[in-house]
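FAQ: What does a ligand-bound record look like?

Like this one, built around 4'-deoxy-4'-aminopyridoxal-5'-phosphate:
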Amino acid sequence: MVQVNQDRVLFDRARAVIPGGVSSPVRAFGSVGGTPLFIAEATGPYVVDANGDTFVDLVCSWGPALLGHAHPEVVAAVRDAAGRGLSFGAPTAAEVELAEAIRARVPVAEQVRFVSTGTEATMTAVRLARGATGRDVIVKFAGCYHGHSDALLAAAGSGVATQGLPGSAGVTAAAAADTVVVAYNDLAAVERVFAQQGDRIAAVITEAAPANMGVVPPAPGFNAALRDIASRHGALLILDEVLTGFRVGPGGWLGLEGGYAPDIVTFGKVVGGGMPLAALGGRAELMQLLAPVGPVYQAGTLSGNPLATAAGLATLHLADDAVYGLVDRRSLELQAAVGEALRRESVPHVIQSAGSLFSVFFRDGDVGDYEAAKAQDQTAFGRFFHAMLQEGVALPPSAFEAWFLSAAHDDRAMERVYAALPLAARAVASG
Ligand code: PMP
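The answer part, i.e. the structure of the complex:
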């Protein structure tokens, strides 16, 4: 009997009613080809697709699933909250507790505003920085992703530091022109931009440790130097920890690196424990420029949603040192195993990490910025990806994404990954 591929059936149906069949572009397998897994359920380190096939999941919902999928205590907290009502449009005790929990882990976040997505968190951070400084220009780095608000969807032009160009159809030239795009890790370019228009710059925004062009860690002292340059020119530093926050350690990347204080920090992903929740935090006097205290408007019907705050609180409560220690160890083991498999087949590659986050670039030599990240062999990644998938391991379906682990990735799950690696390396080598 011929097996019908239910993922395929769903993808065909999906494409008829949803653009590209997906609710967020990278899910469509556009760069690796093939049919995305339609996930029916997920537990611990595994996802199950519409065919009932089980895969070891190295996507972890793109970060949130630090404890693994459907952690019983997180699910129980959400169930419990759901029984008390789904949304009130009014303040709750859980919001207060979650804000306190965030501040305890990231002390620069003296006050916190909750939103539903990372996009909203960074968009609000930008508005707050503009409101606080009375200036218009935002400096961002090529290859850093901060969500899809207009100002942050500016693309780099051909120069080292360029006035932004619209990074998407529908972003006006005016919105992009107030964003200056600089090559990542290039402090000289940042200095130059500030020397030229420092009195117009409201903020520099950077991923705490970039992981949206593959993992490209900041050069030692880079973030601290940004702090210094911004301060000298009266501009703010926005540290985007949407991806790294509460994932690489209890205090995020800032907790690992330390030594400097951003004005605004943005959070998402882990902080919502898999539910739609994100946040921005900063010094109290700065945060109080937000409505209703101050003149910078920001709001949200579902902001601080009770199910999301319950999931976030349960997740932060469970994310102790043992969790981070385990994820760190798994990450190191996996990086070593990937490296060995690729070396054996003489596949050019470089593995880069930032805390437990890592990614594999199919090219030789260190990757310090987006231009270098783009100069990888994406076809090789596609072959590697599909060979892993064939063996029951779901990697992020793009060469520009970090691989994610969780505390639920136990020996059994990892053995399956390790068994798949030599085959995937061979698939790359044999072209
Ligand atoms: N900032 C960073 C660093 C991110 O990685 C992302 C999402 N990948 C965002 C912002 C946007 O978050 P969201 O997808 O929740 O809007």
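Follow-up question: can I read anything off the structure? Yes, for example: The longest helix spans residues 321-344.
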